[in-house]
Amino acid sequence: MIDLPFQWPPHPKGDGGRAPGGWAANGMTNTELGDWVEEVVAEHFGCQSLLGSVRQGPFDVICGERVFEIKACTVEATEFKMKPRKEEVARKIRAARKARKIACSMIAVVDGRTVHVYWREGIGAFRLNDQWHYAGAVKVRRAR
To answer: Phi then psi for 16, rounded to 5 degrees?
Structure first.
């Protein structure tokens, strides 16, 4: 996975006033946004999707010896973070160990047609900060 000098993504624009309901602020469902970001990461960052025809797996993509859980966010979010449940964390750590891979987290911040990608080793509840690795940004077509 690429490791460039850290650059902050655009500042989150959200105010926390939206009611949850499975929709991202850009009009896509959270599932559509996540699937699209996984495709972008696989296509532009040298990774391979691990989902195939299966919707749920322990990890989303693999890049060499690292397996990644990806959290897709839009700039309309209030903050850029991932917060998996305790059981999910334990399951992912076991799966990575069994496969002899390094379990990692990735946050992809979507700003219009630009996707900013950040990663770190480990699985857990994390907020994006300058301790993450910056993989870069790519301009893409909108999803499907």
So the answer is: 80, 5
